Amino acid sequence: MKRHLAFLTALAGATVLAGTAIAAELNIVHGSVGRDQEILRSQLDKFEAETGHTVTIVSMPESTTDQFAQYKLWLAAQSSDIDVYRLDVIWAPQIETHFIDLKPHVEDIIDDYVQGAIESQMVGDKLVALPMFLGAPALYYRSDLLEKHGKDVPATWQEMTETAKAIMEAERAEGNEDMWGFVFQGAAYEGLTCNAQEWIASFGGGRIVENDGTIAINNPKAAEAINLAASWVGDIAPDGVLNYKEEDARGVFQSGNSVFMRNWNYAYALGNGDDSPIKGKFGVSTLPTGGEGMEPAHTLGGWHLGVSKYSENQEEAIELVRFLNNYENQKERAIVTSRPPTLTAVYEDPEVAAEQEFIPLWKPVVDGALPRPSAATKRQYNEVSSEFWTAVHDTMSGKGTAEENLARLEARLQRLKGANW
């Protein structure tokens, strides 16, 4: 009996040691705005408690352009330092060769996801990343100021311009010299590509590059949209908007110093936080159109989780990706950060609707959001986007008219196309 007990004790000890031995140390690279990182850390703590693995967040700058540049360095070096990457919705066609195919590992849950989100991460038959959350921007407006000054939520960009100017001037006349009419993402980076694509498409100016690879961005409607945006700088928007990213715009709006703001969904939860000066004083609407008979355009956003094929802990990394995207974690993200989920059922959860009415309200907008042309331009997308935002930023900075800059853009895109995108 003693020998039997000794054997069981030794076996139990070996099991503990084996359990310790298989615990993995994972790194997840993650850029964020708002409360993204806070919620991620909380969910990683739960994962660690359940699995025994440890997970370190490798933080990235806010700019998606800067994030992508760093990602490419790690991936080109075939670095095993990063196990899980948080990827922008547009990146799959450019870097898919560096990631494992997740499809065989999520076959039991893949039908639970918004199919458009899954399709955005498919390159051929390969699922590059499992969708984490989606995004489609909104026009944020100060409902209290619109009511005070007898104005309606604008339906067109021209109406927004006029309303923003009228309220801004009225508020300044009453002593608020810090009030602006409109803030958005105007810095020379991917965020400006998102904004400007919306302006142009809503004016009927087409896309940066059409789905079939056609380049028709140099047209009068596109020029009209960009020239209008250029007129905002130094008028209803501060000169500094040319350096604004998401958090810069949110900072101005949430402090109470802008009538309107274009931003992503995450800003809704923060604006209604207990520490927010504008809690209960703002609303959201779909973005304006270019005019009567036109449709609004909302750039498709979102961030998804991919497992590096250079990871030495692929099995555990897949486990982490599935965990962060499970129902409870997506529900928590939706409630705390107002990030639209990728699991269809979360949109129908009554607690989510009660806590964040923005989520079910925005489901049709997300479903109809306009993708950037990463599929059409493939591995050249980053260069295409850079050329586009540069042309727009130059126009807004007074370096040529939209017509001149779009003509130059067209020539540059044609050269990139010739490089076989």
Automatic annotation (TrEMBL):
It comes from the Bacteria. GO terms for biological process: maltodextrin transmembrane transport; maltose transport. InterPro entries: SBP. GO terms for cellular component: ATP-binding cassette (ABC) transporter complex, substrate-binding subunit-containing. Keywords: Periplasm, Signal, Transport. Residues 1-23 form the signal peptide. Coiled coil: none annotated. One of its GO terms (molecular function) is maltose binding. PANTHER family: MALTOSE-BINDING PERIPLASMIC PROTEIN, MALTOSE_MALTODEXTRIN-BINDING PERIPLASMIC PROTEIN. Belongs to the bacterial solute-binding protein 1 family. This is ABC transporter substrate-binding protein. It comes from Roseitalea porphyridii.
